[in-house]
Amino acid sequence: MIARLFCWMIAIAMASLTQVASAEDGYDLWLRYRPAQGEAAGRIAAQATAIVAPGTSATLTAVRAELQRGVTGMTGKAPALSDTVQQDALWLASSASTPALPVKTNGLGNEGYAIRSVTKDGKAVTLIAANSDIGLLHGAFHWLRLAQSGERLDRLDISSAPKIGLRLLNHWDNLDGTVERGYAGSSIWDWWRLPDWKGPRYTDYARANASIGINGTVLNNVNAKSDSLTAPYIAKAAALADIFRPYGIKVYLSVKWTAPMELDGLKTADPLDPQVAAWWKAKADAIYKEIPDFGGFLVKANSEGQPGPQDYKRTHADGANMLAAAVKPHGGIVMWRAFVYAHDNPDDRAKQAYSDFKPLDGQFADNVIVQVKNGAIDFQPREPFHPLFGAMPKTPLMMEFQITKEYLGQSTHLTYLGPLFEETLTSDTYAKGKGSTVAKVIDGSLDGHKLTGIAGVANIGTDRDWSGSIFNQADWYVFGRMAWDTGLTAQGVAREWATLTFSPDAKVIDPVVAMMMGSREAAVDYMTPLGLTHVMATGHHYGPGPWVADLARPEWNPVYYHKADANGIGFDRTKTGSNATGQYAAPVAKMLDKVKTTPERDLLWFHHVGWDSKLQSGETVWNGLVHRYDRGVAYVAGMQTSWEALRPYVDAERFAETQALLGIQHREAQWWRDASIAYFQSIAKRPLPADAAPPAQTLDWYKAQNFPYAPGHH
Ligand code: GCV
């Protein structure tokens, strides 16, 4: 009896173990390595009978482990590890350790790779070649991506190298474990228990990032605390750096400008004061002692209440250069943010960063890079590209995107960011004539810069699925993939991600990709159509608040941005208004100065237009606005229908989560639409178009909604 009970208990334990192992809870991200279906399993097994990647480096150890894990997961059979090349093996070799490789590796740099089906000593193998172990790691991940996607693996001829040097995540993680604008749980950095406890998530974080080409991470919030520069916190950061190093990922820290005063009682933080410079130099030396490959500093200065060099009547360049001198002997860099605007500056907020930074072009040290948000306001559902791109040819500029969706539905809305990234990167600045795209500015090719970078504000937290939802993982994925190769399309990457995340079956991929591709435009439609911006509720930015007009700083109020009045709506940024258009290169400025030639999607960003003026479709601005709100809501309803049809093909856990979140999104899209229409109608005083339903509630009802506990606001 007892023996039977015991067997039974074991059986139950085994069953639940299997369940856990195969649970689709999102933890594995795009590295799921589930059993390949049909012929694909045989194809993978046939090309990876053994893994030949000899060497003792931590990176090669990680490479072998990843390939074994992947191939075993997909085929059910562990490939042998071998030191000598064998028939049908995966052979990984770097030019550094293997002379006379059958594949040329020049042009691949330190991180790129080539994958080629070749014959070596009469044996057919797949060669992954690179100039470094890190290049081999990236190549291995590429091969695993192909294998997971069910691609042919026997005639490969691929080579790939990143055009942008620094491909970083920026964590807005606080030392108390909260995350500013984080919607996926708490910070994954367990600062309290570091450096002693180093949980497995850190390694999985490194694997995920390396698999998409990310090579650096800024660990702490740009609204920084000085404490992160104290010895105990440097030791914690060093522990993370040790885990990330084999994966080619460097750590960086955000710093608070007044740290020398706060930590060591200096009387000033004036960048030209020798004592201040000496303090930073000593601090940099102390960091590099613990983290020899430390990347450098990220700085938010004189912005939204943060201190900075301007407090001492010095410029951003004075500040950046002083810090740059401190890290220079160690090969470090300074990323100086251009996200600045001041409460006492009456000029259009969209113009202020350009006005501050453009005159400093040419004044920054050669290890400083200026980090510019994609648009001139703040990560809105749509913004025209930032006018600084193309305007500072003598200064390396890096891109800052926001992967976490502060303004695009936070963790619940399915709003795939690939199209937003692509739209920005392909925008033409005309700085050196046609074809001067933003991508060429940041990859350094337009102005001949070697120091190049792109950053994404992370959407990562302690949630089991890392990003708050399965579909939010796609935003992290597409950021990494486009950072590696700015020429990739949002559609192509969506296919790739959906294939890895769900299955290579077209019955799943086609509808999933179709849902994703229109989803960001839908959010633009139901939140900020026709170029409207920053009409979100105060503080947490959750939900609509276009009526807000009572905040201390003018540019914190949505009414500042939409300027709706009895006559019309929109911000006149042309020559007759704030002249923000004048900050763009002449052909762009000329185009944006006229309503007729302004892309309609940016209409109200640049122009104040009458409610009854005509859109391209012939309908009035008022009717067009209402129709766009409706179109956005309808798109979400369409996604719900598409998703329902996928029920037979998606596992129960991920199906249910997405279904529930789409339900939230639909309800909130409707709320956005109704509240916005109720408000703008109270100003426009025009009837709704005949086919539009009235808002469900009164304007006062929408105004009375209050969400003191909405997440992400710290
Ligand atoms: C980290 C916006 C966000 C802030 C953020 C800031 C920035 O204003 O709402 O949370 O602060 O951008 O990028 O510095």
Give a nutshell description of this structure.
With 714 residues, the protein is α/β, with parallel strands linked by helices.
Question: Explain this structure to me?
Answer:
- The protein has 714 residues and is of the alpha/beta class.
- It has 3 domains: 2-14 and 31-160, Chitobiase/beta-hexosaminidase domain 2-like (Chitobiase, domain 2, 2-Layer Sandwich), CATH 3.30.379.10; 166-501, TIM Barrel (Alpha-Beta Barrel), CATH 3.20.20.80; 525-571 and 608-704, Alpha-Beta Complex (Alpha-d-glucuronidase, C-terminal Domain).
- 39% of the residues lie in helices and 11% in strands.
- The protein has 21 helices and 16 strands.
- It has helices at residues 2-22, 39-47, 58-75, 133-148, 200-211, 231-244, 259-264, 274-290, 316-327, 349-357, 418-425, 438-442, 470-484, 490-501, 506-527, 558-562, 586-593, 603-606, 621-645, 652-684, 699-704; strands spanning 50-52, 80-82, 89-94, 113-120, 123-130, 157-160, 166-170, 216-218, 250-255, 296-299, 333-337, 368-373, 397-402, 453-457, 568-569, 609-610.
- An 8-stranded parallel β-barrel has the order 7-8-9-10-11-12-13-14. The chain has a 6-stranded mixed β-sheet with strand order 2-1-3-5-4-6. A two-stranded antiparallel sheet has the order 15-16.
- The structure holds 4-O-methyl-alpha-D-glucopyranuronic acid.
Which ranges are low-confidence, i.e. pLDDT below 50, for 5 or more consecutive residues?
A: 1-21
What's the alpha carbon Rg, rounded to whole Å? Answer: 26 Å
DSSP helical segment count: 21
What structural class should be given to the helix and strand makeup?
alpha/beta
Most strands sheet: 8 strands, parallel, barrel
Number of individual domains: 3
What is the end-to-end distance?
58 Å
Q: Which CATH first-tier class of the largest domain would you pick?
A: Alpha Beta
Tell me the helix content: 25-40%
* Structure ligands: 4-O-methyl-alpha-D-glucopyranuronic acid
Mean pLDDT: 95
Any idea what the shape is?
globular
At the fourth level of CATH, the homologous superfamily of the largest domain is Glycosidases
CATH topology of the largest domain: TIM Barrel
Count of strand segments:
16
- Beta-strand content: 5-15%
Any idea what the CATH architecture of the largest domain is? Alpha-Beta Barrel
Cross-sheet strand order for the largest sheet: 7-8-9-10-11-12-13-14
